[in-house]
Amino acid sequence: MLEGPKNPSDKEFSKVLDFLNKSLRKDCSWSIDKEYPTALNLNNRHNMNIVWDDQNIVSHAVLKPLIIKSPHVIYKLGAIGSVVTDENYRNQGWSTKIIQKCNQLALEQSCDVTILWTNLYEFYQKMGFELAGYEMSFVIDKDFSYDRTLFRYSSEKNISPEAIAKLYSQHTVSTVRTIEEIRKFIQIPNTHLYTAWNSQGNLAAYAVEGKGIDLQNYIHEWGGSVPAIVNLLGYIKDQKPSGFTFISPKTSVNLNSKLIELSTISNVGYLGMIKIINFDQLSQKIKKAFRNLGVSDIVLEKHADYYLFGCGQDLCTLQKESELVQLLFGPVEFSELNVFQTNTIEKLKLILPLPFWVWGWDSI
Ligand SMILES: CC(C)(COP(=O)(O)OP(=O)(O)OC[C@H]1O[C@@H](n2cnc3c(N)ncnc32)[C@H](O)[C@@H]1OP(=O)(O)O)[C@@H](O)C(=O)NCCC(=O)NCCS
Description:
The chain is an alpha+beta fold and about 375 residues long. It has helices at about 15-25, 95-110, 120-125, 160-170, 180-185, 225-240, 255-260, 280-290, 320-330, 335, 340-350; strands spanning about 1-5, 50-55, 55-70, 75-85, 115, 130, 135-140, 150-155, 175, 190-195, 205-210, 215-225, 245-250, 265-270, 270-275, 300, 305-310, 315-320.
């Protein structure tokens, strides 16, 4: 008999991993929980959702709540991952039900939005997710000169998580992480950690490539000053002569402008598929952020069949939540709407699009 979605018990946890390894990691020498050590973890069992048919698990998805600090807003984000249904049970609505359960759990745990990474856009759009946010990517495949003496470079993985945490804490937008979590991330299979050390022996920059079967040849995590990172990229290019792709948030303005010079291709993509989970909570946070900057007439309201958005009397109506998501998180620009006056656009731009980013180690 089919039952679920429900959470696995302590005893069932290893069965969930067996199902995920069989379904998603057939040819891997490691277990999938090594790739997602904080999401596929007994401590997060209450956010793992499964469907059973008698003795067998036939469908799964996990939610990982994350706290993201940004200049104006502290978000609670629910990241959803490891979505899979056994081949013999597909097209019966199980993943739809499990994703809805993840969204429900996200609401119960005070998340503002949920996010997932996929290429099944229409499948998730039906469930209210929309492609939104920004991801800058830069293909670095030509040699460039870098200072070989200013730093000592290394591809040794045995680095203190405290040193990484120190650089990581300087990011404009970042997930709150413990030292223990960073220690686990460093050990993810198929990740390469590159570091640059200054003459005092302090970590000046780090960069991470690969994550399990994903993000091969992508630098998805990094930290340090712009000159230290750029020099480190020169060293990585020496180690990987065929090149790599560097991904970064839109907020890394100085680094991104330097990378445009160094890359052969640069692209602005979406961060992921985002769904608003608690509109009232998110709109309160946004309005408070505007008030803190002296803008007190922001209107962001949900009505029965439309959203009202703007400043004072200069308002627009949006029919769909997906339109609002792309305005709040990007990539739709206010000027593209052709509805707001210039002074309204200037005010909205103080905070919007919201600086928002999930570092590679946190993506599930
Ligand atoms: C993608 C995947 C998770 C979907 O799982 P699923 O349980 O079949 O999903 P659902 O049944 O909820 O929905 C699948 C389709 O069936 C349709 N459907 C939903 N309920 C249905 C029902 N009761 N009867 C018939 N069809 C139904 C859905 O509308 C959807 O149609 P679409 O593909 O045109 O959007 C599954 O195909 C899978 O495991 N793929 C391999 C792993 C993977 O790609 N994971 C996604 C990573 S993001």
